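User: Fold this; tokens only.

Assistant: Input:
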Amino acid sequence: MCFTAVSMHINAKANSPIFLGVGGSSTQYPEEISVYPNPVKDFLTVKFPTKGTHTVTIYNIIGKQVATKTVQEENEVKLNIGDQPNGIYFVQFTLNGKNITKRCSKQ
């Protein structure tokens, strides 16, 4: 199961804030972002709804950055974490100015 969390500053003038639920479900969030497979063995893929410049960073459970990758004019980022130990990892990226973090496990 992949858990979703959002880190953002709420602007009182904003028309609709982003709400992301637990377990990959989303509410008031028009675009789909896929993080798979979960659990991951070697390569983790983050698929964005549109092509563009995307940076994905992976942190281990203690907050140490273990991988990062930026792509341009793509809608998919693949990261190799096969050399990392099994455990919980946090996948962080930005979409529409909002920092989004998804929790995944490595086996």
